[in-house]
Automatic annotation (TrEMBL):
It comes from Halorhodospira halophila (strain DSM 244 / SL1) (Ectothiorhodospira halophila (strain DSM 244 / SL1)). Belongs to the citrate synthase family. It catalyses: oxaloacetate + acetyl-CoA + H2O = citrate + CoA + H(+). One of its GO terms (biological process) is tricarboxylic acid cycle. The active site is at H308, D366. Pathway: Carbohydrate metabolism; tricarboxylic acid cycle; isocitrate from oxaloacetate: step 1/2. GO terms for molecular function: citrate synthase activity. This is Citrate synthase. Residues 1-13 have a biased composition (Low complexity). Keywords: Acyltransferase, Transferase, Tricarboxylic acid cycle. Residues 1-23 are annotated as: Disordered.
Amino acid sequence: MTSKTVTVTDNTTGHSIEMPIREGTHGPGVVDIQNLYKEFGYFTYDAGFTSTASCRSDITFIDGENGILLYRGYPIEELAENSNFLEVSYLLLHGELPTKDELDQFNRAVTEHAMINESLKDFFDGFHYNAHPMAMLTGVVASLSAFYHDAIKLGDPRNRMLTCHRVLAKMPTIAAAAYKHMAGEPFVYPLNRLYYTENLLNMLFSRPTEPYEINPIHARALDQLLILHADHEQNASTSTVRLASSTGTNPFASIACGCAALWGPAHGGANEAVLNMLHEIGDISQVPKYIDKAKDKDDPFRLMGFGHRVYKNFDPRARIIRKTCHEVLNDLGIENDPQLELAMELEERALEDDYFVERKLYPNVDFYSGIIYRALGIPTDFFTVMFALGRTPGWLAQWNEMVADPEQRIGRPRQLYTGAARREYIPVDQRKKG
């Protein structure tokens, strides 16, 4: 809390109050409006919460104007280049980078919880063979609440961290089981000798009929994608996790709520939409036509993967993922991949066009991530599941932080009611049509 204040005056009465400004480490301060209703009898109106801070957090900072993303103060570029997903997960959960011993202990803790109860295999059988994988992921993650309901003690920090280990460990196993159910192949158990993303690739693609060799370039690319998606401040799914968790519900249920929110095409389905867009464009020769369509406000076509609600400059994750995209495609021997060439041409044309430059509609992380997933053999409708795997440590860190915050209360957003005024009930035989 600082000595800075904002004075608010109700011009209908002349009554004024001073509201304190809270300032963080980076970014704009926030006006503490908790006494607004008490003093004035008004609520604030902020559709989409675009100007409202719903919590205080030490985890992630975004400066959208300058294209900056920090996890616990560390630039995303440095973490993606030098770290790995489990180390970043530790950072998000604990607030500091681990020592060698701490990281080894964390890796073991996560690895030891990768197995899921055998009865969950029957749970998958209840889904239709072509069920969307996010439906399976959401349902099975929520079902973990039944296995660990009595074991969770929200007031115990050690117990909360055990829950974090369990969720982080079991998400790849559940995701891979959903993939195998889609493919009609037998489930593959996790192997404790493999690193997190190596284990995920093995559970996704190995079969009992032949050995599967894990490509280290693919494992590293996947690890980097998970890092880039690990947290993104108070986005829709993270806010959903926090709002659900504010009731004191089982954390597995809260994470399932995050999965459900992420499923939306405006959130976690954005990279899938990019591939669908490239498929619609079809060929490089069609790029000028579709560029013009994107600029036509009366045309329903939109360039997917360009611009971001938060970033008003380059998405810092896009620069990293572009390089990784080329590395994967070069390793697979498909340097002349038609869809990548189309994506590169689309990017080049858009960045040279004044319409997009003036509006700072630059490629975001979704523009390239879908191409990488496709190159790794991951089906399009599974992209959001991969996003959920990456976002899991962020959800868990935000959940843990919220539960420990003494200021946090149950979420209860207000509304501006615009429905019918109070009216009397009319018996059904006396009502007139219209």
